[in-house]
């Protein structure tokens, strides 16, 4: 543990340097994050750069702690080049899969937006906010006003509110190394399934395979039944695990080439 192998050390250093740059340069670094496909801020190279960005100190702390906890043993098993390759594939793959999910979500939001535009009723207005922004303050009152007084001015204001939520969603980027980290967790559990781990929030040792399975189930539940205000990219985490598993199976079948 905490044996800083070359690739782990370099990944850690790059993430720390980028995080420092974020604090110094602020919004000037935002274009490194991954914006939804279709956003005016979207760029293809963000699939690579987003994984070196972080949303705060605790975000980078947990991701880098996982990297230095589980990464070195994998790097000693694989070598630096293959470990780095695995890290990048999981990170990029997680971004691609998450972007696909996000595109689907935004397309459904747009359909709901167009339904409201075609029928600007208080019910459709409330349904839109209840589905996509239930934590928003005042939307119930606005729906009541629209029901009691569906004047052109109130309809216009309600339409602008709905359009604003939809447009704002295109300006919410994803960032962080979590997709790559979850790929590392999957690889560790796959190669060392019976290694017992002591976690801070569990008072007894748990085998790596059970920890990763439980974590994947938790992320799936959180992603499907999203809590209002939850900004965690759960499907990016699951995407990192899935991509990691696929890469491991490919490498396992090509053992003569990769080992």
UniProtKB/TrEMBL annotation:
PANTHER family with a match to the protein in the record: PRESENILIN-ASSOCIATED RHOMBOID-LIKE PROTEIN, MITOCHONDRIAL, RHOMBOID PROTEASE
Family affiliation: Belongs to the peptidase S54 family.
Keyword field contains Hydrolase: yes
Keywords: Hydrolase, Membrane, Protease, Transmembrane, Transmembrane helix
Recorded topology in the membrane: Multi-pass membrane protein
Subcellular location: Membrane
Designated name of the protein: Rhomboid family intramembrane serine protease
SUPFAM superfamilies: Rhomboid-like
Pfam families: Rhomboid
Source organism of the structure: Hymenobacter defluvii
InterPro entries: Peptidase_S54_rhomboid_dom (IPR022764), Rhomboid-like_sf (IPR035952), Rhomboid_protease_S54 (IPR050925)
Highest classification ranks of the organism: Bacteria, Pseudomonadati, Bacteroidota, Cytophagia, Cytophagales
BP GO terms, sorted: proteolysis
Transmembrane domains' residue ranges: 50-71, 83-104, 172-192, 204-225, 231-251
Principal localisation: membrane
Molecular functions per Gene Ontology: peptidase activity
Domain Peptidase S54 rhomboid: start-end pairs: 43-100, 171-248
């Amino acid at each position: 543990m905490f044996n800083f192998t070359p690739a782990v050390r370099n990944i850690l250093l790059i993430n720390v340097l980028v995080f420092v740059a974020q604090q110094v340069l602020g919004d000037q670094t935002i274009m490194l994050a991954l914006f939804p496909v279709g956003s005016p801020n979207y760029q293809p190279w963000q699939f690579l750069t987003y994984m070196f960005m972080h949303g705060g100190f605790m975000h980078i702390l947990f991701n880098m702690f996982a990297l230095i906890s589980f990464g070195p043993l994998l790097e000693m098993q694989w070598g630096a080049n293959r470990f780095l390759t695995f890290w990048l594939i999981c990170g990029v793959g997680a971004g691609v899969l998450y972007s696909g999910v996000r595109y689907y979500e935004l397309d459904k939001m747009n359909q709901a937006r167009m339904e409201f535009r075609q029928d600007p009723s208080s019910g459709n207005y409330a349904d839109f906010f209840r589905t996509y922004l239930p934590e928003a303050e005042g939307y119930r009152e606005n729906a009541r006003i629209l029901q009691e007084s569906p004047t052109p001015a109130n309809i216009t204001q309600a339409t602008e509110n709905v359009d604003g939520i939809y447009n704002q969603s295109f300006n919410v980027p994803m960032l962080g190394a979590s997709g790559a980290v979850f790929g590392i967790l999957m690889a560790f559990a796959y190669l060392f399934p019976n290694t017992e781990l002591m976690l801070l929030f569990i008072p007894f040792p748990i085998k790596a395979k059970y920890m990763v399975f439980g974590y994947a189930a938790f992320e799936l539940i959180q992603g499907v039944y999203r809590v209002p205000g939850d900004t965690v990219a759960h499907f990016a985490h699951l995407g990192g695990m899935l991509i990691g598993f696929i890469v491991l199976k490919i490498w396992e079948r090509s053992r003569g080439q990769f080992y």
